[in-house]
Amino acid sequence: MRRISGFYQSLIGKKAVVACTGLVLLGFLVLHVIGNLKGFLPPAAGGEPDIDVYAHFLRNVGEPLIPHLVVLWGVRIVLGTALVLHVVTVLQLAAHNRGARPIRYRGAEHVAATAPARWMLVTGCAVLFFLILHLLQFTFDALGPPIAPRANFGCVYQNLWEAFQHGGVLLFYVAGMAAVGLHVFHGAWSALQTLGIDNPDRNRGLRAFATGMALFLFLAFLSLPVAMALGVIPEPSAYSAACSASAA
Amino acid sequence: MKFSLEVWRQPAGDAAGTFTSYEVDEISPDSSFLEMLDILNERLTESGGEPIAFDSDCREGICGMCSLVIDGQAHGPQRATTTCQLYMRQFDDGAQITIEPFRSGAFPVVRDLVVDRSAFDRILRAGGYVTVHSGPKPDPNDIPVEPEVAEKAIDAACCIGCGACVAACPNGAAMLYTAAKVSHLALLPQGQPERFARVQRMTEQMQKEGFGSCRNYGECEAQCPKAISIDFIGRMNRDLLRAKVTQPIDFRGDMKTQ
Ligand code: HEM
Ligand code: FES
Q1: Å between A216 CA and nearest CA of chain B
Q2: Distance (Å) from CA A187 to ligand 1 centroid
Q3: Fold of B117-246
Q4: Atom 33 (ligand 1) nearest CA
Q5: Which residues of B fall within a CB distance of 8 Å from A101?
Q6: What is the mean pLDDT, run by run of 10 residues, along chain B of 258 residues?
Q7: Which of A104, A173, B8, B174 has its CA 20 to 30 A from that of B24?
């Protein structure tokens, strides 16, 4: 306990917590987007969209050894803890920093800092706002039609399809992913520098990694919504599964 | 040359300060920034005014005493240059120049452009001693050091402790200074015995002084008159994290069997 509290009380320890939780969240985003890309796959054997099969799988991972939903909730708890730690620590550091530099300069403030680096708190808050609405929309089904038309629980493909027929929803996702991209552009490199992994030999490579991550997440996350909005992939009714039958 | 200056004037640390405008003319392009201020001060004194207080000592870029934020940049617009080594030919004739003190909660203004940087001395002192043997004079090159490592250590030791990194950092962090001081010893064999204790003590003191936390903006490196690399910040973080995770808190505590 003494070790943990000593670690967390130091500024560099706090910053390492931000970096590690940021990397955990980043790892989650990569897995999440790979799952999303299943929306482009042809239907599974029973005619069910592949992404729906995947969604069922996430609920049943490890069955019968591990009970229904346990893995899903395990992951949710880990991610929730990481997110809370990330945000709480970031706010503590921001409050501390305000005291460390109470007076601003009249002249220009920045020579080296990139815009995404300076906007971390803003893009971070935008990501948080996006995340809350995104979870309310698709996970908790709290927004209701037409934004989150829940034709049938588990009919992921169809629910997504109908949501992205609304221009406003699509626009909101574009903005949310732009915030994620900007956050990751600085964050993915910054975390590695914080943890002392960057050095002059690796710098170019690690910065390229962060840029690549930001672009990949932005483009890959938006590919499915855009494809659905433009109708370049099959409509849900093309799938011969229970979902399309029960559609309103 | 001729310049219009906007200078921060503050009669004392606890008094309110404001910007005051001054016009200076007949300045040689080859006079340094501090010489330009000397000339202005001389004229101010002759006309019965109060001279502008600013710090300087060696005026050859090695002592770290000069400071000033010139047009929003610590030590002015020229990279890798102290204010004392900055010449007026770097500015356009007739330019308007804003001069402010180094701003940081941990560097209180003493007067005008002079700030109290003794927080740095306390960080350095927190580093403590380095064990060296006190017997007969050792042979030269008794302790082998790889030339690249020695060069890297000297890059860190180039820090003149001026505080530009703190002034440049939007978060008022003293990471570059502390990292340079920590790293130059951590890189050398002579600094190994106290390596992990030192990094913990110095960063603790840094935090106690109220310096901010690093956001990896890189402003410190860009405005450092000795162009010290943020690589040292990564090194310091690595050492500190390692110390916090692996070094015993209680080196000599008791243990029981089970
Ligand atoms: C999925 C979501 C997120 C990911 C992948 C993520 C990732 C990261 C990463 C990798 C860093 C760099 C850490 C470092 O510099 O050492 C970072 C920093 C930061 N994050 Fe996030 N983050 C996320 C959500 C958020 C949220 C919701 C906020 C809300 C306030 C936020 C605010 C910040 C801020 C302000 C920093 C800079 C902290 C500092 O340097 O003091 N992030 N993030
Ligand atoms: S006065 Fe010594 S470094 Fe500038």
Answers
A1: 23
A2: 6
A3: Fumarate Reductase Iron-sulfur Protein; Chain B, domain 2 (1.10.1060)
A4: A124
A5: 103-105, 169-172, 212
A6: 98 97 98 98 98 98 97 96 98 97 97 98 96 86 93 98 98 98 96 96 98 98 98 98 94 93
A7: A104
pLDDT tens digits along A187-197: 999 999 999 99
Query: Nearest Cα to A118, choosing from A97, A100, A138?
Result: A97
Give the closest-approach CA distance of A127 to chain B in angstroms.
18
Number of inter-chain CB pairs under 8 A, A vs B: 144
B161 Cα to the center of ligand 1, angstroms: 31
**What is the arrangement of strands in the sheet containing B3-9, beginning at the earlier edge strand?**
B18-24, B3-9, B96-100, B69-70, B73-74
Cα Rg of chain A (Å, integer):
21
* Domains of chain A, earliest start first: 13-96+116-240 (1.20.1300.10)
Write the CA distances from A28 to A20, A75, A238, A248, B35, integer angstroms: 12, 9, 31, 33, 58
- Overall CATH class of domain B3-110: alpha beta
